[in-house]
Amino acid sequence: MTAWIIGSKCGMEERLSSPNPRTYIGSGKVSEIKSAIHALDVETVIFDDELSPGQLRNLEKAFGGDVRVCDRTALILDIFNQRAATHEAALQVALALMEYQLPRLTRMWTHLERQAGGQVKGMGEKQIEVDKRILRTQIGVLKKELDSVRKHRKQYRNRRTSVPVPVVSLVGYTNAGKSTLLNRLTGANVLAEDRLFATLDPTTRRVQIKNGKEFLLTDTVGFIQKLPTMLVAAFRATLEEISESSLLVHVVDISHPLAEQQIEAVDNVLSELDVSSIPKLMVWNKVDKAKDPQKIKLEVERREDVVCISALTGEGLEEFCDAVQDKVKDSMVWVEALVPFNKGELLSTIHQVGMVEKTEYMENGTLVKAHVPLRFARMLTPMRQLHIS
User: At 297, which CATH number?
Assistant: First the structure.
């Protein structure tokens, strides 16, 4: 199949002060594309922007034949649909697809008008209303199922927080190397391929570093520029994993020529999720593929908020774990607690999830001075906690 892409360096571009309300592009460009379609035997024309139902219908009529016009949202939804490997991902993609299709159902019935003119128009309208009611019903069912998924996830997170290990979420542009990083640190064997949206479901694994400390690392769905709003809404249950994190690690493919634009796209999606209060760590990945790795490393040395790694080769992972530990420490609280001698497992947990500065053996137990997660500090209250600041 041959596809012709509009709004891309590999296809056609047009400069307009504003999109044409009927066809998005100007009439001259419509004619130009129509000529190219016949000359190149094009079957699909893809627009790198979202088109209205009317624009899609008018363009397909103008191009004629069996040429399909696809906008950016439809293409992304199609890719997501191919990547959905679990029941939850399939539900999320199906909901987004149905919400996208609902205002576009009229395109399915234009053949009735061609077959019998105005005599069938009323029948077509009735059938469209029936289809819309069916689709709305299906949307309602899917939303209820996803609400159930959200509740299940919340219960899972509540169980997970009962063991107060810091949760670190990997966020970033699609194909930035998040899954490869998770696999390298945990041996999780998560699907990691050089393709868009290879991961649609969050995967959480435990990471233990050399000093014995540990944290939970979560791989999340990749972002993209102009991510369709309906996808953000449909994946809300998945993205809620991010909001429960102790730290967000923004993974960037620093070898990509559009790395800065990708960083901005991720920041825009994160702003929609209201996670500004969660500490962040920037990670420049794929330094081994960059044109000038040494220049990038020198830039990182001048910055305190960036770590340079190669998830594929393992370069910089020790520095990454140290940076994660330092950032997580910033989100902890200082405690001085007296732990009774018969609560040895509690003392062990403090050493495991916190950062102990000093221990002192007293007559009634062990006095611990440490940074610990806030929720764990609250658990120490019954243990005759002395001070929290």
Answer: 3.40.50.300
Is 311 marked as binding a ligand?
Answer: yes
Cβ proximity of 365 and 338 under 8 Å: yes
- CATH code, domain with 61: 3.40.50.11060
The pTM (predicted TM-score) of the whole model is 0.67
Query: Is 106 annotated among the ligand-binding residues?
Result: no
Structure confidence by residue, pLDDT tens digits, 183-206:
888 876 554 444 444 444 567 777
Model confidence at 115, pLDDT cuts 50, 70, 90, reads: very low
Whether residue 185 is annotated as binding a ligand: the answer is no
Q: Is 219 annotated as a binding residue?
A: yes
Q: For the chain, what's the residue count? A: 389
Ligand-binding annotation for 197, yes or no, is yes
> Binding residue per annotation — 313?
no
Domain end (from 293, 308, 330) = 330
Tell me if 182 is assigned to a ligand binding site.
Answer: no
174 is in an annotated binding site: yes
pLDDT at 303: 87
Q: Which residue spans within the chain are E strands per DSSP?
A: 3-6, 44-47, 68-71, 167-172, 203-208, 214-219, 247-253, 280-285, 306-308, 333-339, 355-361, 366-372, 385-388
Give residue 311's pLDDT.
Answer: 92
Phi, psi of 46 (to 5 degrees): -110, 130
Domain count across the chain:
4
Residue 192 annotated in ligand binding: no
